[in-house]
Design a protein that fits this description.
Shape: globular
Number of strands: 8
CATH superfamily: Metal-dependent hydrolases
Strand content: 15-25%
Helix content: 25-40%
Order of helices and strands: EHHHEEHHEHEHHEEHE
CATH topology: TIM Barrel
Strand order of the largest sheet: 1-7-8
Low-confidence stretches: 19-26
CATH architecture: Alpha-Beta Barrel
Length: 241
């Protein structure tokens, strides 16, 4: 089995969204990508990625240095166009052209979802129950269940009860529940058996402290295999809460 911390930030992350951090002009993170790579490897990770906010510069540089065990990643801020609610989507294995298109589309989460499925890009909804800009409601969570098949079931920055409660919701979805939501929101779920959700895990580290302590497990020999396992919803969350 292969392992990877699927939610890690480096100094290449976009400016922080919180008002206080912006006011103090602090960076989202100060950790160098190579430091993250070394920590992840020391802690037993098979593969390494970076998921900087709306940036792939760091992961591209890291992949250039370590082409066999690094894959690109990005934490994309996506918006529900009907009311401005923001959520974070972790996207993996993307190239610069795909990143640029994602940047263009991310202000409409429905268009972004369609593009991710069209390009078969592995992705996971990060900390879905966390309200990024204070607008998240139960209805947004219901829509996310229709829009996406893979979710972060364990986030190292969230409490154990928080992670386990959300994971329980994801694991106990049924065809009838998804159909009820489809009728309510008029959103068609894509893929086969969309009530079966894949789960990922990541440390959500911003300081080089918890890298590799929370991670995803999947059957894979290569980075391409690992990404295929994510797309197939054949991954498990492990590590600290």
């Amino acid at each position: 089995m292969a392992t990877a911390d699927l939610h890690v930030h480096s100094r290449y992350s976009e400016a922080p969204s919180g008002w206080f951090m912006r006011w103090t002009e602090a960076a989202e993170c100060y950790t160098d990508p190579e430091t993250i790579y070394e920590l992840a490897k020391e802690r037993g990770m098979t593969f390494v990625t970076l998921t900087d906010h709306n940036s792939i510069e760091g992961s591209l540089l890291l992949k250039e240095r370590h082409p066999t065990d690094v894959f690109t990643g990005c934490e994309v801020t996506a918006t529900f166009p009907e009311d401005g609610c923001e959520v974070h989507i972790l996207v993996y294995g993307l190239n610069e052209e795909e990143f640029n298109e994602i940047q263009r589309l991310r202000r409409d989460i429905y268009a972004l979802r369609a593009y991710l499925f069209e390009k078969h890009l592995a992705h996971s909804v990060a900390h879905a129950t966390h309200s990024v800009n204070g607008l998240l409601t139960l209805e947004h969570l219901e829509k996310l269940l229709l829009l996406f098949d893979v979710f972060e079931g364990r986030n190292g920055g969230r409490s154990k009860i928080h992670n386990e409660t959300w994971s329980s919701v994801l694991r106990n979805l049924t065809p009838s529940r998804l159909e009820d939501l489809r009728r309510k929101h008029r959103i068609e779920a894509l893929g086969i058996e969309p009530w079966i959700k894949g789960l990922t895990a990541g440390s959500d580290d911003h300081a080089g402290v918890f890298v590799g302590r929370t991670y995803t497990v999947a059957t894979a020999e290569t980075t391409a295999d690992f990404l295929k396992s994510l797309l197939a919803r054949k991954s498990l969350p492990e590590g600290r809460h």
